[in-house]
Each structure stands twice: as structure tokens, then as C-alpha cells.
Amino acid sequence: MDLASYGDLAVRLVNTADPGRPEQDALVDAAGLEALLGDRAAWRRLPRTDALPRLRALRERLRRIVEDAASGNAARAVRELNVLLAAAPISPQVTAHDRQPWHLHVSEGAHDVVEAYTAAAVMGLAVQLTELGPDRFGVCAASGCRHVFVDTSTNRSRRYCSERCATRANVAAYRARRRAAG
User: Fold this and answer.
1) Class of the CATH-defined domain 3-135
2) How far is residue 109's CA from residue 115's CA, in Å, rounded to a whole number?
3) How far is Cα 55 from Cα 110, in angstroms, rounded to an integer?
């Protein structure tokens, strides 16, 4: 697996909650955990002791990292990321599976699902920060949305977490212009 793609795990975890809408937290039960794990079959076999509260705590720390980087406080984001890297059970291992070529995994020595998720998400975020730069971390510009993203576009222009938010913002701006003109 491409290490940078592990950063998507961090974004996926952070976006299971929106600070402005705590009632929409997607990480409150076993179904939410299953959805978060997605297609990671190997992680589904790992123990899940206290997984939900531990993942919610990790989620808050990762959110602060992205928000700090997005607001221009890269030094604070990097300090927190380094703390998480030092504590994460990162155990790199070369592997091949599912007809994929040899690639690197970073969570092979994890004792439970939270350790596996932490190792991969933190390492992925670190790779993205160092390869793309902290200015590529963002918080959605759509009104009412606080989801995060990592801008991997070639022109560094991403402002929204998804096409849905971009479309909503564009439609709202269009309607506002029409009201002002009419």
C-alpha cells in the first residue's frame, strides 16, 4: 500500500464527527466501527477492547493536527503529530496480498484494531504532511461543514471536503447573486 494513502484513514476517522453537529457522530456503536474499518479485513480480526472511546480520542487529536496545519500553525501540528508517531505501534513490514505487488504496511505488529488504525493513520498523515506540505491540510469551506481533507490536487485549489459540499456552496452563491441582481 502507498503510505500516503494511509492518510485517508486519518481523514476518514476525523470525518466521522462534525464538531458543530455532535448528534451526527458516526462512531458510537459497532456499526460505526465496521463502517470506519471499511475493507480492511485483517483489522476486523483484531481485538476491539475499548475501541470506540480510544478511536474518538484519536479522532480529536487528528482533528487538531489538521486544523492547526490548515490555520497556518504548522509547528504545533507537527509537534502533536510527532507525539502520536512516537507513541504509535509502527511496525513496517513488506508484504504482498490480494494479487498486489510488494508494498509496505505499518501496522502488522498491532495488538488490537485501535493500534492498527493509529499506526496507519498517523504514519499516513505524516507522509502527506512531509510530501505535500502542511498547507495542503484543510477544513471544508462550505457553510455548516467542518469536515477535513488533504488537498492532493495539482493546482492546490481544493476548498471543500467533497463534491457535494462544493456543489452546495456553488448553488448557494449562485442563488445569492441572483437575489442581489433581482
Assistant:
1) mainly alpha
2) 9
3) 14
